[in-house]
Specification:
Elements: H1 2-8, H2 14-26, H3 35-56, H4 60-76, H5 85-93, H6 99-122
Helix pairs in contact: 1-6, 2-6, 3-4, 3-5, 3-6, 4-5
């Protein structure tokens, strides 16, 4: 994750993925820790941030709007993943482009799911995920 954040030129990108790791490792049975929520939540939140940035620009009020919109969108799509709200905030405050949604957001979420799956299988910690989608 640190490598992806460095490649993207945004060290703060570590924050949403670090908090996602805490959920996946600390509460793997939680619905918000499942692959659908991790990948969908991060991507939807980043897209909400990008939309607000493109429509309104970048300031604190619009960053708050982006986070609120991302929460609503994640709830509507059943992909609520609280750490992903930070993606919307970063998109607006750092004025990031659409490519950021693909790398590191989408790529990072997929890698996080792959790592979590491998970890739970190797450590024999029970069945994770409860469902893939």
């Amino acid at each position: 994750m640190t490598g992806l954040a460095t490649l993207a030129g945004l060290p703060l990108m570590i924050v949403p993925f670090t908090t996602s790791i805490v959920l996946v490792m600390g509460a793997p049975e939680n619905q918000q820790s499942q692959p659908r929520n991790i990948v969908g939540g991060h991507v939807i939140s980043a897209l909400c941030g990008l939309s607000v940035l493109m429509l309104f620009g970048s300031n604190a009020s619009f960053a708050a709007l982006a986070v609120g919109l991302s929460i609503a969108a994640m709830q509507l799509t059943r992909t609520l993943h609280p750490p992903a709200g930070i993606d919307a905030l970063l998109m607006v405050t750092a004025k990031l482009s659409w490519t950021f949604v693909l790398m590191p957001v989408l790529m990072g979420a997929i890698l996080l799911v792959a790592f979590a799956y491998a970890y739970h299988q190797l450590m024999m910690l029970g069945r994770w995920p409860k469902s893939w989608w």
